[in-house]
User: Fold these one by one.
Assistant:
Number 1:
Amino acid sequence: MIDILKEIGVKVKGDTFYSKKLKTAISSDNPSKIRASYYLMGALISKCGYVKIKHPGGCKIGDRGINYHLEGFKRMGIKVAINDFIILEGRSQGGCIDCLKSVGATINFLLASTNALKITKLINPAKEPEVLDVINYLQAIDYKIIISDEIIIHPKSKGKSISYQIIPDRIEALTFMTLGLLNGNLKIYNANHNHIESVINLFKNNNGNVQIKKNYIHVKKSKLKELSFETGIYPNIPTDIQQILTVAALFCKKKSVITDNIYVNRFSHCEELKKMGANIIKVNNTITVYPSSMFGSYVVGKDLRGTAALAIAGLVVKGKTKLSNTSYLERGYEDFVKKIKKIGGKIIIHDN
């Protein structure tokens, strides 16, 4: 993502980003490598009135088309053309836009609405912490946004420059919490426990030793009873942690039944875990996970969270595990290998 930002003229220095003049035509293939590149559509159409970008990439975990986004832009009065590129042109006219509870669409419409000609009303918006953080940021730079069951955006031509601290990554926090429950005694800093309450309750209700402290979350190795759950829209258990919790379920006392209601094909990790001794039965979008005797093996990561799940499994089973396609981890974790080594994990990256 940083490479894309640099391509359009953003100056990057550490955690600081600034720009004077932005380019709106992105010719490289970088946007096709990550899904989050689609946020540039809403941002650039609002700021510049034009954007040309390759189709976004991302993991193949089910139906993740961006039709919601493009149809929403059209309803805003923005011209949309699709070929090898996605081309947007014009300025939002405002109006009433249905977000269909999509996090990505809600954020994109928020961004596109900031410089609209009229007020924009977003109905059925997603309200995940990441969406609310974008709203908090926009409010901090002087945009008037009202949140109730709907989101109302009052446009203006320009916001002010500020320093802003984004929220912690809740999925990263849960990934390391899961590792701690399986094989460790970890203190996880810079994590907002309020954002992950559904999973913390799942752990605690099943004998998980999780303690909420003032500045960190303390997790100790625990023999969990089971981890049966269904994923859902926030504040329910997020789909992004489902694959990682599958690994924890393999070490529980009893079988676990896990249903993913968001992405029905998010089970690429299961066949790979079977190579490590996992006993998992899949029926449609539900898996039954039985306590298993696990061992190291050669496995292949096929998407971001599935690769993280396999990495966690490799760290806690007996024997060595060779994991390929580790580049997936870079999409969702900062310095994953460095952090694992810091807590005593033995992990070596040979190539990607």
Number 2:
Amino acid sequence: MSEIEVFLKKEIGPDLGSRQKIEELYKSISDDVSKVIMNFEGIEFMGRSFAQEYLNRKHIASFEVNEKNMPDDIEKMFEIILKLNNEKITR
């Protein structure tokens, strides 16, 4: 098993808007990887649909996913989505 670091700006660009891009990125990660570090350095924007898909993929991934260099606004968006998802589950 191995660990890799993914530089999202290099793989996708500074604007994370397309849900399809994160889906493709997760699918491209090799089966022998046990841990992925998602590096958010240089990311300027992330859309809500991208964020939702990112969290969905992270939840079902067969490997551990950690974030690095995450801007405050992106971290807050993840927190809001997770909170909303938890509220939907508990209703």
